[in-house]
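notes to self, project folder thing:

trying the whole complex as one job this time. last attempt i did each chain seperately and stitching them together was a nightmare. two parts in total, labels are on each line so i dont mix them up again. if this works i'll redo the older ones the same way
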Amino acid sequence: MSEWWAGVSETFARCFINEGRYKLLLSGIGVTIKVSLLAVALGMIIGFLIALCNLSKKKPLNIIGKVYTDVIRGTPSVTQLMIIYFVVFATINWAKWVIAAIAFGINSGAYVSEIIRAGILSIDRGQTEAGRSLGLTARQTMIYVVIPQAVKNIFPAMGNEFITLIKETAIVGYVGLMDIQKAGDFIKSATYEAFMPLVGTAIIYFVLIKMLTIALTKYEAYLRKSEKR
Amino acid sequence: MSEDKVLEIKNIRKSFDGNEVLKDVSLSVASGEVVSIIGPSGSGKSTILRCATLLERMDGGILKYKDDIAASDESGHMVYADKKELKRIRRYFGLVFQSFNLFPHYTVHKNITEPVILSGQCDAKQAGERATELLERLGLEDKAEAYPGSLSGGQKQRVSIARALAMKPEILFFDEPTSALDPELTGEVLKVIKGLAAEHMTMVIVTHAMKFAREVSDRIIFLENGVIHSQGTPEELFNSNDERLNSFIGKLEE
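result (full assembly):
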């Protein structure tokens, strides 16, 4: 037993402590969080704009929205990431993580737009009619009446989208970014150990997402409480 | 009285997917007049209100508030006033819905003040005072900070009347204001409307409550199949010997 334990702790030390390898993972966590946060923000902005295009009465805007969602949903995110990085930003010298976040933001935007569109359509037409009949403009009705209510309906689906997005960023290694996944992979190659680095990677992702889930659930409960239905 | 007309509707037509709901209806409402519109389901009662409040575009006819033309087909095709003009015209009227349509994310007080403030009628302080005054008048002052979700149907409808009144409309439309309420809650809402009638508020009420229509109206319009079948004072209509009218009124009074 003690021999087994000695073996395990030796492997653990080799994987995570020797040569400061934990630092790789720590900075990997930083990269994953940075990319995810910026991508979520961009995804929300793009998603909102595309949702407005899709809901608009103007045909050209509908077409833009439709083509955007179709193309993004119809191609793998790795392909999108590589096209953005190696083609679109080939000659532009921005930080790698920013370019990656832009790629994920563009990707997420397509999904977010569908969530927002569904959320806005879920609000009873009577709400819009009440707004309009009380002298609000179409825009004011959207901003003060429809969207605040839609946000509550949208929230759970949006939380799911964030979670998916964080996991999706595990492919940034393709453009040479050292995120959690890439760090785990690097340790695996350096130590010829597969189990610990990979399971360690999984645990880190799991803990990150679990924390996010708890925060989202708490916030959702808070949102619901502010409106006693 | 003709120059005192608040609302004038001439020959309006409206179809939904080829189904003609309103065929040539004309109606004008004088200042201070209370007009009830009765008629079977699908007769086009609500559609008149929805056209008059610009929630539906009519296919033909003229819609006028005082001297402002909101829509007209005199040129041969239907022309609506421009956005800016319509925004101004919307100030003339208020609409109370069957299903209340209160804003669930705002408190009762904010439901009333927010539209007044957003439409630029007055500042937050004045709007607040106006709301408090209206809530007091409708016996809802203790509900000011409640959310609509915690109110009874009758209270909700009273709030929605207060919300419409806060805009100081010249004419108030009611689209079956008591149809979504439990029978025992209709009384409180009808009392409010009667109170408004006593103050000579100009109102057009679509309703199934015959007794109420009889008591409150200066004029009742019986609509059937998209045309005005008959109209007159409550006495005239309720003592009419028109067979169709009597069978309709009789059916509802049972």
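what i see at first glance: Chain B has a mean pLDDT of 93.
need to look closer tmrw
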